[in-house]
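Field log, afternoon session.

UNIT: design team B
ACTIVITY: writing a sequence onto a fixed backbone
BACKBONE:
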């Protein structure tokens, strides 16, 4: 069904999802079905209905990584299409926390989206997450916003961030520590 949706075959995907939905499913399978139904609604350009369907997804923490990643990717798009930048950005960062080998072209749009959030929202988000990768993203954005008019303090704060998070993917956005 995912491949059909990615290829734009929404009618075939809808038929397949309907057939799957008529079978007995485990909890994880039911959750995955709801994620795919949400994706279908996005493909049909029905973002409000997609938001309602996404709200029916429960127990994401217990999903296998690949399905959890799909949930966060679809969720990010759902919130973006419903003009909820903060939630969309947060979901995108959660998706990043599950991915390996991210590249600068992949993360740059998320960084730009993150930088559009007010400092207070960034601080609130940081206080509400227990995900270390997401927390580090938010901390870097807070540093960038806090010291954007103070270049010396900004460089010092970024160096500290890099020392604390040497393997974080957001380091792709920053020159190497010795160049700062």
């Amino acid at each position: 069904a995912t491949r059909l949706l990615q290829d734009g075959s929404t009618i075939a995907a809808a038929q397949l999802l309907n057939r799957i939905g008529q079978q007995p499913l485990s909890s994880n399978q039911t959750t995955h079905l709801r994620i795919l139904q949400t994706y279908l609604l996005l493909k049909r350009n029905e973002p409000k209905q997609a938001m309602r369907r996404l709200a029916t997804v429960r127990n994401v923490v217990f999903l296998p990584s690949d399905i959890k990643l799909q949930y966060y990717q679809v969720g990010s798009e759902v919130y973006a299409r419903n003009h909820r930048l903060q939630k969309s950005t947060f979901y995108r960062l959660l998706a990043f926390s599950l991915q390996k080998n991210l590249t600068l072209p992949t993360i740059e749009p998320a960084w730009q989206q993150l930088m559009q959030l007010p400092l207070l929202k960034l601080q609130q988000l940081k206080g509400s997450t227990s995900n270390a990768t997401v927390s580090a993203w938010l901390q870097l954005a807070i540093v960038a916003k806090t010291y954007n008019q103070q270049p010396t303090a900004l460089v010092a704060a970024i160096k500290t961030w890099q020392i604390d998070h040497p393997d974080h993917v957001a380091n792709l956005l920053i020159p190497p520590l010795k160049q700062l």
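LOG NOTE: The chain has a mean pLDDT of 93.
NEXT ACTIVITY: expression trials, pending approval
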